[in-house]
Each structure stands twice: as structure tokens, then as C-alpha cells.
Batch of 2 targets.
Target 1
Amino acid sequence: ALLAEFGDSLRDAPYREAARLLLLAALDGKDDARIVRSFETLKEKDPEFTLGFEPVLRVATAYRTLKEFERAYLLETALLDEAFGKDLKVAGLLADEGRLRRAFELREQLWLAYPASAVSMQAWLALSDEMLTLAPHAHDDARLKAEKLERAELQRSGMRLLMRFLSLHPGDPLAPEAGLSLVSAWLSLEDYAQASALAGRLAKRYAKPRFADSFLYSKAVAEWSLGHVDDAVKLLERIATVETVDESGRKEPSVNRALAWYILGQVHHARRDAAKAIDAYERVADQFADAREALQALRERQLVLPELSIARPGEPAQVTVSSRNLKSAELLVYPVDLLTLCLREKNLQHVAAVKLAGIAPVVRTQVELATKDPFVAAEQVVKLPLEKAGAYLVLCRAEERHASGLVLVTPLDLEVREDPSGRVRTHVLRHSDQAYVPGVDVRVVGSADAEFRSGKSDPRGLFIADGVHGTTTVIARLGGDQYAFFRGTTSLGLPPPGAPVEKAAAEADRAAAQQQEGGQQGDYFRNVFEMNKNLQQERQQNWKKEVEKSRKGVQINKGQ
């Protein structure tokens, strides 16, 4: 009577209290019509009121008796979700006590016991997420060790849950998320065949761009990793060029577009298709350092001459020019006093910078360079009319590139033996008959030395230098125009290769290289992994909220 007569003028607080009392009275009276009417009134005035489990079940029964099946279903579903959440608290307590194995088993049992609902589906995926997240750390997690939960078991159990989810509930709104998590799990195991096959099926099943794009991209990179390059290229080109329309009608590129172009650049690079590789790299050069470096390498101009070329008097001399991305070059040849040049420049590493002002070249020639392939430097032999014995400095210029080298027209040979201690034994021989040549002026210097060791070859054609440090350079001169030259590659008088310090450094370099390679492979799936990780974190947060909720009953607005 109070609500009927004065309901429009009652303040909210007394109205809500009167509505609650009416509902409780109706429940006690077991009058289904009055229960439903009182519940509807209270729901309108106090939608956040929480009703206990038994009363909610009685209200749902009243709706069902009056053939209000949808209302009954909503209340029963809400009641089941609350009961499910209440039981989840037990699993949470077990986990807090370190009893992870029992907690995992209970969570799976609860999922099997309760009907499929948004809450139980979310909790199911959260369980697989937790298993797959913990798996890589099983070897160093004290809790997991105590429970004898090993990586293989956690990985297998997490993936089994996902497979079951997709098999039993392929149409569930969370199914694409489950699929992405399972594809990511196969990728993390580097089982690219399984990942590719699964991603291909899921891309057809779940056509929404957000997931279909990630599935197709995962399949493309997996196919590439398997060596199925043509299949990978078709998928990557599709991802790199496709545009989807969002809900507002705006066109958007794939979130994996940049990575697709980057991988396409690498594929074409490996196939030695410079034009396509450059086109792909240019599109993502601002996003990937490797793409910028690859572009620079493909466009790099190279010009190289050998440090030393040997010819014999009376025979034609020649020099090999190595070039890339250059069309033509000019060669200038100057006669030089090699001994004086070496004494001044020490080791000839900067011979290209030697000032030759006022000296006219004995040879000047223009060379057309055959550099058609930008991936490989082309080599061509240039003959030089240098029949007279002597030392000649060859300078080569092509556009902004410069190179230099020595040509020795000489009847002499050097036979050099190096000892790690720093002792260098040099025999001077005549090339024609290999006879020892005495009285030859010999100079020896190490790359770490400040001074030359010098002397004359003895009757055996031998000169010995001690205390050489670093790599060896040997120059010999007989008369004014007969030279011989030797450049060593072994470091002398210093800790030998393989010493403990160098070994440690070499191991560190190898480890760094392996880590970089692994990281780069991971980068190809970065977008997929990050998307899956974000979804996992969201599910874990929802799972924690469900566990931490106060479970006193059901808010009556869930019956709407």
C-alpha cells in the first residue's frame, strides 16, 4: 500500500528499503507472481543490491514458472558465474600456499564442472596462459621445482588446454585469442611446420582483420623459416599491400606491414634481386637499422687493388682491379724508390696518400669497369707495359673512390720463416734458378715496432731479424731497381691466438653473435608475440579480479 499510494513521492532510501522488504516477504510467501513483481521493482530502484545465492535461485525459479525463460536464464547464468568465482578462490588459496600443481588441477576441474560462460572461458584461457608463461622459467623457479613441474609438462599442458578450447568452442568470442596463443606457443618451440599449418586454418576460420592478419603473417614467416620461400613471398606481399576498412570506414594497413616489407627485402636480397631488395628495404629503412645497412651495402661503391703484384723483367705486368657499382676508372703508374718509401711510410698502409707532386706517371690508362652485379665485386685484369725492373706505385681513381697498390718487376724472390717469439729468417733467391743471393739490403719491421731491423743477406742469402712485434713487413733491394717484398699475417712477439684472454674474448663475440641472431629471429614474430602477450595480461588481470571479488551473492541487475 505504501508503494502503491505514495511511491511517486517517496525518497529513494525508503523506497529501496520498502522494495527489499517486499521481495523478502514474497520469497517467504513463495508467491511466484509477487516474487517477480517485487524483484522487478527492486531492480529498477536498487540495481546494485546483492541477493544471496539461495534467494536468487528462488527468483529464477519464479521466472521460469511464469515462462519468463530468458530472465530465468540470465539469473541462473549470473548465479553460476558467482558460484564459479567462489570456487576459484580455493584455487587462488592453493596457489598462494605454493601448491601450484593442485591449483592447476582444480582450475581445470572447475572448468569441466561448470557450463561454458564468458567467465569460465576467460578463466580457462588464463590457466593456459599461466602454464605457458611459467614454462620457460621452470628450471629456476623454486615453487615449480618443489612441485616437480618441469618445462615440458607445463608447455604440453598449456597447449593441450588451448587445443581443447578450439575443438569444443570454435565459435566462442575468445576462440581467436586461443588460436593466437596456440600459434605463438608453436612458434616459441620453433616448430614452424605446426605453426604454419595451424595459422593457415585459423586465418580461414577467423576472418576479422585483427586476428586473420596475424595468423597469415605467422604462416608467412613460418613458411620462410621452413625454406618455402615462394609460398612465404605470396603471403608477405599480400600482407604488405592489403588495406582493411575499420568500423568508421577508414582504410588501414596491416599492423605487420613494416615487418612484411623488411622480410621481403631479405628474401629478394638472398635471391640476388637487387632492384626488388632495394625497393623493399627503402620502405622500412626508417624502422630497421639492418634495412638501412643493407641499402648502404647494396649501393656501396668499391674499388680495390691488390697490395702487391709481381712481374718478371721482360714479361708483361698486370694488375687486377676489383670494383662494384662503378662504371670506369683511371689508372696512373709511377716509378718509386720502394726502400725510401717504406722507410718513410713504415708499412705502406697509407701508400695511397703518398704525395707524388711533380712526378709524371709512366702509364696513364682509362678502364671500363664491368660491375653489373651490385652484390659481388667484379674483377678484371689490366695489362701494364712495365718490362723494366723496378717498383711501381699504381693509383686507381673512379668517381670519389681511390685505390692503390704496388707492382714489382723483379728477378728476386723472398722465402720468409716467422717464429712466434719474434724471430724472422729471410732468404733472398733469384727467381730463375732459385739460387741464394748474397749482399742484398734487407729491412724488417713489425706492425708494433717503431724501427726497422736492417742488414745484408749473407752468402746463404739469409738475413735474421729478432725482436719483431706484430705482423711482419720485409723489403729487400739489390742495386737500384731490383726489389722483393713480403707481408706477414701472423702476429709475432705478442700473446698467440688462443691465449686465455683472447679465447674469452672470442667466446664472448660468438655468444653475442648467437644472441643477436636469436633476437633477430624473435623480431620477425614481435608483433604476433606482443599482441598475444597483451591479451594474456588482460586475461590474467581478469582472472585475479574474479579470485579477489567478494562473493556474497548476485547483483540483481545481472537479471536484465
Target 2
Amino acid sequence: MAPIKPLSIGDLYAGCDTKQFDFRTTGNLPNIEELIGQERAVEAVCFGIAIESDGYNVFALGPPGIGKNTLVGEFLARQAEDEAVPSDWCYVHNFDHPRRPTALELPAGRARPLARDMDTLIQDLRAAIPAAFESDAYRERKEAIEQDYKERQEQASEELQKRAGENNIALVRTPVGLGLAPVKDGKVIDPEVFEKLPEKERRSYAGAIEALQQELQASLDQVPKWAREMRERVHELNRDVAKFAVEHYLEDFKKAYADLPNVLQWLESVAADLIENADAFIAASGEGAAMQLAIQGIVDGPSFRQYRVNVLIDRTEVGGAPVVYEDNPTVGELIGRIEHQAQQGALVTDFNLIKAGALHAANGGYLVVEAHKVLTQPLSWEALKRALRAREIRIQSLGQSLGLVDTVSLDPEPVPLDVKIVLTGDRTLYYLLAAYDPDFLELFKVQADFEETMERTPENVQRYAQLVGTIAQREDLRPLDRGAVARIVEHGARLAGDKHKLTTHMRSIADLVRESAHWAGEASHRAIKAEDVQRAIDASIYRADRVRERVQESIHEGTILIQTSGEAVGQVNGLSVLQLGGYAFGRPSRITARIQLGRGRVVDIEREVELGGPLHTKGVLILSGFLGARFGADRPLALSASLVFEQSYGGVDGDSASSAELYALLSAIGEVPIKQSLAVTGSVNQHGIVQAIGGANEKIEGYFDICRAGGLDGSHGVLIPASNVRHLMLRGDVVEAVKRNQFN
């Protein structure tokens, strides 16, 4: 077998030549406005914003920190500034159906003046209406009505008394009302005297009294009718007086809003209610009324709140269409809510306590929401879909939606909805929603898929330089020299996991620029240098490196057994990657295989004790298929084998150790020793072909650190799949050791 040729230095690291840059520092570069490397996402977002058909809302998918919100925000702001300012919205009292407040749509900037004008109108009427009722003309007309009522009563009484006098009967007042009594010689006859009168005379008196009693009752029956007529005449008088006062003040008001038919229609209802309830203004103007209202904590008084205007959305200072970012998409924050206030031990509400939601604020424009936030809020997702399907915003409390509240509440008139929604989230959420929510693809038809990497072309390297320069300029940081830009480009390739690509994870690059600027300041550099960038990278690793140091310490001390010299049968050093938060590092593991007579079964000890994940189990089963095809084509295998990760006390998953497990098995079967100075990573298929794996850089560096601690002698190295060579962007100390033939 021909020896395997070690990789060259150029295969291990693709540096960035500073000669390709024609600037001294990024301060000489123009700012870059667009997000680089996201042509597909840019086209999707532009399409989603431009198309006006129903259901073409946008879902921007990609990992956090890749710049979704930045790109979406820039394009929405650019689109929104050229669009018309949408309408103002307010709620007013519905005088016909008080539980269903009316939604008024007004031109932009008109709602707040309407509210102020109504407050001023009510304040004026609170003085004008009582003043109208205190005028001499009103008093005279009212007194005339009351005098007429009195005269009718007196006339009826006089006629009855006259008739009674003609029949020697007197009309007397008793504690229980009017009564009739016999009279003789001008005096009322006592009951005792009356009983002594002759029978004929008593009968005469009784007959007269009975006849007069009927007339008295008929007269008394007329009194309530006359009183009702008097009250109706007084009420009509009050209406006339109130109408005169109200219409006088409403005349100019209506002229100011003559171009708004919906406002004029509502004002007609206001005028009718003001006229009908003028008594409330008179009562509020009485002595002690202001003090009583102050004690109750009410400024306008409960009878005047119905004339106010609850401004829901005010576009006075808005230029273009609104772009709203909702960070807390609860049901109330999305579609609005109805608040309550305590009054005499009870919770009460009215249309003044209706509050707008993000959909109201974004109506006529754009709303950006993070998908996982809206999905984790109870009923928010369903409320958002319902609003998009119905194209209206219907405000309901959470208790009403769940059917848990039976108390009387409001049912505000829905507001028509015209909005473009942009959801942002990771790919998992998008595909889960697409698979399990039948409404999702109907409502979010535009998929803006953000790339994690872009090609490392000379043009993109130049744009990378512009990008880091723009970040430094916008955040008022030191500019970067050519060496610093080159080092960031190299680190971008490392983060991309491919020497031929660059990461588009903007958060990572921006953080590196900020941290490099900090260390440049510590070193008093006028511009950020490559050494500052490297110091920022090293400091970031050191802050997250505690667990890796403890693992390597255990290996150095012999607590974890890893052999890096000599040879052994059925034993190989496998490599894995541990991911802790945002930091990943390589960890070598000893993999051993034992064989004995059997029936061709490969026992995965990790699986037997339920520590092996499905991917690891799959890799072991693939090994069984390979062994069966290679050695059991003619006759059954007369052996059994067992595989295990030694000193593994946690879960094991992934198939990147399957090639190492295969080598351990072949070594055990053929009793051929394996060099322990080598470590292996790579998966294998049933044909014995080694396949690419992830985390190649971390695995190599993890094994290198172990070998360096024990002393490098040139025999140490790592075997990787050939298809992983393009992914290598190794640390400088590893590359240097290879240059000195200490590591391969």
C-alpha cells in the first residue's frame, strides 16, 4: 500500500493577501449600504414588499445574527418613505349601541385636533347650557308653564268648592288628602251632631256628598295628567333652549369638519344626545358639583366621557407609511386591548379605555415580528392569522377569547386592515409551520432565505473590507488597516467552515470589529491592526475556554486515558466536537473494539446502555453492512464484535467516528496494530468510502493540543476525509508545527 502523502501548508490555511487592498485604512473606503452576500434574500424581500395581492406576507428565515432585521428594516424604510401617510383612527361613543363603539377613519393628522375641539366644545357647553337656563326669558317661559298648571288646579278646586257650597258641603284638607264634610249655619257638622240629625236630612247630605265625591275624584285624576303635561312642556322648553345653545356652538364646529361625512354624522348624534341630556350640564354646574367630581377622581364627569374622542392612531408627525417593530407580541399588544378602571369597588370600562395594538400602528404600512415570540404568546398567532384572513382588526380581551369572562364588556367596531407582515425566524420554525399549520403558506407566501456564507471571490473580499469599514464608521470606532481587514477575512472563512467562502453572520463580524477596536485602544493604536484582531479572537476564546482546559487537564493527568504514542490492536483515537453556547472545541476519545466467536453481530455498547444517539447507531449498523459484504459474502461471519467510546459518561451521537470504529474493528479482526500517534475522523458508508464530517478544524486543533502537551516528535497527526480539505482554516500554531514537520 502506498503511503498517504501529508497535506501541504496551502491546504491547511488560505491566507488573505493584503496587496489586493488599495487603501491604507478603511477610513478611505465608502460606506456600503446593502447587506452583502444575500442576493437571494434581497430579491425575495423586494418582491414581497412590492406585490400587493393578499397573502404575500414575508417570512425571513435564517439563523440569528445573520442580518435579517437589518436588511428587512432598510428595505421597509426605503419603501415606506415614498408611500402615502395612512389614515388616523379613533373610537367614539355609539349613542344607538353603547356597547359597540364606533371606529372613525380620519385623514392623517386630523384625529388629534378633533379630540381637542371636542374637549373644548364640551367645556364651552358646560358653561353655555347652564347660562341659557339661567336667562330671564327661560325663567319667564318656565314660570308661565308652572303658573298655568297651578291655575288649572285652583280653578278645578274653586269650581268644586262652589258646587259643594251650593249643597251645604265643605271641601276640607285632611292629613290623608282632600275630603267632603256637611255644613250647617256655616260650620262643619261634628260626627256626633250629624248622627242626631233626622234621617231625611242625613240622606240628603249623603247623596250630595256622594255626587261631589265623584266630581272630586274626577278632578284629582286630572292632576297627574296636568303635571305630566307641565313636565312635557318644561322638557320641550328645555330642549328648545338646549338646542339653541348647542347648535350655536356646533355651527362652526361642523364647518371645520364639513369634508368628513362620518364625523358630521357622529356630530348629529352628539347634538341629539346633548339636547336630550342638558340636565346633566345643569346638575354639573350646581353648587358643590366640581368638588363632588373631584372627590370621585373624575375630571370630566361620567356623563361627559361619552362626548370625548379616543384617538387610537395619530399620524401627525409620520412621514410615509409606518414601519413598526413589535418586540412583545402578546394578544393585547398585537390587536389592541380594552382596559378597565376601578369605580366604587367594580371594574368598569368605556370606549375611552380602548388602546391600540401594533396592527393599528402598522395599518397602511409594515409590521415586523419575530416568529418565535408571537408563537410563544398565548393566542397571539391565531389572532394574527385571524386579522390577516378577515383583513380587519377586531379587539377582544383574552378572557373573552377563551370564553372565561361573562361580564358585560365592549365590542368595538372592527378597523379595516391593510398591512404587510414580515416574520423573522430560523429555518426550523419556517418548515414546522409550513408542515403543520395549513394557513401558514396561504398567508406567508414569500420565503426570504438568508445565506450563512458567500463565495470568497476578490470582489466579495473588497466588499468585506467595505463592510467592516462601515461598521467602524457607524459606531465611531477606529478604522482598520489592511492587515486587520485581511485577518478578519481569514476569520470569516474560518467561521464559514470553508476556505473558499466567507461567513455572512453579521453579528459575529460586527462583534469582532468592536472588540478589536477595544484592544487597539488599549494598545494606543490609531488604526486597528492585525494583532488587535488576533488579540480579540484569542480573548474571546479564552473567555469561553474553561471547559476545554479542564478536559485537556484530565487527559494530561491521565484521568482520561488517551494514548498518543506506540501501537495497539483494536484501539484508535477518535475525534469529536463539543458545542457549548457559541464556542466549540475538539475532544479526542479512545475507541476500542473486541471480537470473539459469534454470528456476525456488531454490538454497539453505547446503544445498549442508551447513551448512543440515532446517528451514532446508524453508523455502527453501516459498519455491520460493510463487514458483512466484505467478509461474509460466501459464508456467515463466525465472530461477534463490540465497540465502545472509553470513559464516555454522556450521550454519544453523530456518525463522524464510524471510520475510526471501522479501523478499530479491522485491527482487532486482523490483529494489526494501529499507531496511537494518529487520530481519525470521518464517516464511512457501506462500500467503505470515507465521507466528509463537520468541525474538522476544531477536531484537529483539539488533538494537536493534547499531542503538544505531551511533546511533538513528528509522528503525530490526524486523518481526515479528503473531501474535508477545503474546510481547513487551522490555527497559526498548528500550521507552524506542520511547517516544522512536528505534526501532520
